[in-house]
Amino acid sequence: MPKLLLVIILLAPFVAWDAACYVMRERGDTSPARRTEVLRHFSERQIETGRDHVLRHNKLTPFYRAIFYLFYGLLLFAGLAGKLESFLLGLTNGRWWAALPLFVLALLTAQTLLYLPLSAYREFVIERGMGLSTITVGTWAADRLKSLALNWVIVSLVALPVLWLVRSLPGGWPLPAAGVILALSAFGIWISPWVIDPLFNKFTPLDDARLEQDIRALSAGAGLDVERVYVMDASRRALYLNAYFTGLGNSRRVVLYDTLVKECTHDEVISVVAHELGHWKHRHVAKGFLLEALGVTVGLWLLWLLLNSAGIREFFGLSSPGSLALIVLLPFLISLTGTVISPAVSALSRHFERQADTTSLELTNNPEAFISLEKRLVEHARSDLLSSPLLHTFYGSHPLPEQRIARAESWKTSR
Ligand SMILES: [Zn+2]
Description:
Elements: H1 3-27, H2 32-39, H3 44-58, H4 61-77, H5 80-91, H6 96-129, H7 137-168, H8 174-195, H9 197-200, E1 203-205, H10 209-221, E2 229-232, E3 243-246, E4 253-257, H11 258-263, H12 266-281, H13 284-307, H14 310-315, H15 326-364, H16 367-381, H17 389-395, H18 401-414
Parallel strand pairs: 2-4
Antiparallel strand pairs: 1-2, 3-4
């Protein structure tokens, strides 16, 4: 079979799914029952604003997907990755480990430039037009450069030992390679609150004695030691309200956006922190990491099986199993696999979020604050309240706003 036909057979289901997602996002949920349910808590105006927001973003998705297929198609199937590899190997006298960082830099730079117009349009036209983005062109450009440099370092640091293992242990590299990737990943999660996050934002200890005291009391009640609650200067970029839990071991912390601290009432902030403590209590970062470990190990083993076939290597434009083009193939395959496994990943994420919501309600015993917070989050983010049910199953990381509110309401009545 000619190669082009094989490429089309491989990619057609994914392109069809992209098109279906576009249509589903355009349509949203048209069922009257859902609208009635949403209107119990939100207004017609909020529904319209949320729809408008998602539709403006949706206009860009075909361009994002086209760039994705073009980028990987040219590199893998049209042989551009192989050509770049040969060129860089010539430049470095055949030393693959010296060619590797140059290869990574070329790829990441090309990728950044390709997506740059879309990224600028998103930020300065859509998000600014909706009154959500506050970022200056200077900060935005600096972010792009910093991300590029950071990704360059990270990808090179991971790819060097992994490719070395692929080259030196052709019969059994998946397990040690998974070990290296996971060790570096755990190290990254641990060190990121100290080293990576401060590259983009300023973090200051929470400067509100009453709030801090109440957060201490809350965490003590949960049997947790939350010494570290930080406020991040998120308002430099956007007005979204958010909080997150990050870090591993002694770098664990709760981070609140300054927008959240400024906009929300005392009880609402407590409700958010209690939710984040729920993630902490249920060890969601560690559990996510264990699942990642399983995924990486199985994924690398499958990749090893694939790369043992000379025909498959040739199909993807790899001159040998340890070719630098592997650095292109891996994210491409991860992205395609991601689409297939996203319902499972999203279901697990929603399960974690429900657990954290339950902890929040248990710790605060304040469903009213939980509900007013949820409403405020929707209003601030211009969230789409009539998202397509199938898209929610595939990609929804959190339960729907009306579902979260309904849980708080039933908690209230069951007290
Ligand atoms: Zn959460």
